[in-house]
Amino acid sequence: MAHYVGLDVSDRDTAIHVIDETGKMVWRGKRASEPEVIAAALRRHAPHLERVWLETGQLAPGCTIL
Fold first, then answer.
1. What are phi and psi of 10, to 5 degrees?
2. What averages of pLDDT result for each successive group of 10 residues across the chain (66 residues)?
3. Ranges assigned E (strand) in the chain
4. Which of left, alpha, beta for 54 (phi over 0: left; psi -120 to 50: alpha)?
């Protein structure tokens, strides 16, 4: 089953929301805003990752779909 992830990035922490292809929440949590830490959480909680939505707020000029 496909997983879709929303990341709300700040300078210290990143909120992570994982949903499945039916829209059901699979997991949500916060991790340090370090690439290795976020990658480990995604490998564990979204093993069938299809798409990532990145919300950066004031850290960048907009949102990106990866």
1. -125, 180
2. 93 95 97 96 97 76 54
3. 3-9, 13-20, 25-32, 49-55, 64-65
4. beta
* Three-point CA angle 32, 37, 38, nearest 5°: 85
Residues sharing a CB contact under 8 Å with residue 53, sequence separation 6 or more, in sequence order: 4, 5, 6, 7, 63, 65, 66
**4: its two tokens:** 């879709």
- Name the residue with tokens 């909120």: 15
Report field, pTM of the whole predicted structure over 0.85: no
Residue spans per domain, the chain: 3-52
Residues 4, 21: Cα–Cα separation, whole Å: 7
C-beta separation of 4 from 45 below 8 A: no
